[in-house]
Amino acid sequence: MRRTSARYKSAGVAVAAATAMLLSATAATSSGAAENTGNTGGAAAAAAGPVGFGAATTGGAGGTTVTVSSTSAFVAAVQSSAPTIVRVSGTISLSSMTKVASNKTIVGVGTAGRITGYGLNISNVSNVIVQNLTFTGSRDDAINVQYSTNVWIDHNDISGARDGALDIKRASDRITVSWNRTHDQDKNMLLGHDDGNGAEDIGKLRVTYVHNWFDGTNQRNPRVRFGNPVHVLNNYFSDIGSYGVASTENAGVLVEGNYFENTDDPYHRGEGDSGDGSLVARNNHFVNSGSGEAGGSVAGIPYSYSADSASSVKSIVTAGAGVGRI
Q: Please, what's the largest Cα pairwise distance for the chain?
């Protein structure tokens, strides 16, 4: 069983025209109130759709589109009971973790959409997209997902969260995390919050992490409990401090086609007081990095996908991850 300690170290894009149309379709109101721009239809929900476990996520497609530039308008829009595409133009300063209702797409306008102060709480809901937003300086998590299904976290820039950049826990399932850049972050992406939560989490916590840029993040890239399979596919790991991927508590993680650079410990089994999980490593690329520790077996990936060559992942991901790239 591998044991590590946390050592803080600061430090061809496949998108569809639908998002570009959405981002240019309306302008923010000068008052900062939500502007109702009518029914957008399904095509304008977001990019073509997520790869992997979150593939069924459609967010606010088919609902109305509103553009917000004030905190009060933002909170009202994301907590509306109706399907809604919420376009964020400007900086939204949150005073607490803010609940998001089901059937929502929350998408930044160009590079202008920013969330600061606290983050988003996607809890006890389904069908949520969070896309093209910059999250900075949350006093808690930047994004927390719990008891939720069909979630797509895509093309965001996340840094400086006091707790986690993106935590997924408590029986959440069918989620895709794609094209995000995380940086200046100690605890990055946690999947499964506690060794004692197996009764809720076993058979759930199925997540696809694809085309993300883990840029100098220290640990939890991701740290996995119970989920099987979890697919870590075609991500770029650069200058990782403590470790990259950890599989614990009987999780099953497939680490496939990733590019590891300046990462002494790319992946291992067990972490802290958590017991080993299984980890299968396939077709990864290493530059000035360790070789990683694999072992055990992982459940088959139940969806079709096409993996990029690992040696090309750095150029693909750095060109496409983060905000303003859709």
A: 57
> What would the two tokens of residue 37 be?
């721009």
What pLDDT does 31 receive?
32
The encoded tokens of residue 255 equal 């680490």
Active-site positions read: 220
**Strand residue runs (E) in 147-296:** 149-154, 157-159, 166-169, 173-178, 181-183, 189-191, 207-210, 213-215, 223-225, 230-233, 236-238, 245-248, 252-256, 259-261, 267-269, 278-282, 285-287
Q: What is the pTM for the complete model shown?
A: 0.89
Are the CB atoms for 207 and 53 separated by under 8 Å? yes
Q: What is the mean pLDDT of the chain?
A: 89
Residues 6+ apart with CB under 8 A from 30: none
Q: Using an 8 Å Cβ cutoff, are 213 and 235 in contact?
A: yes
Spell out the long-range contacts of 118-126 with Cβ–Cβ below 8 A and sequence spacing 24 or more.
118/94, 119/94, 119/143, 119/144, 119/161, 120/78, 120/144, 121/97, 121/146, 122/146, 122/148, 122/151, 123/99, 123/147, 123/148, 124/148, 125/100, 125/101, 126/102, 126/150, 126/151
| Residue 140, burial from CB neighbour count under 10 angstroms (0-12, 13-18, 19+) | middle
Residue type, 321: A
Instruction: Pull the structure tokens for residue 89.
Output: 């133009």
Low-confidence ranges of the chain (pLDDT < 70): 1-47
Q: What is the pLDDT of residue 48?
A: 76
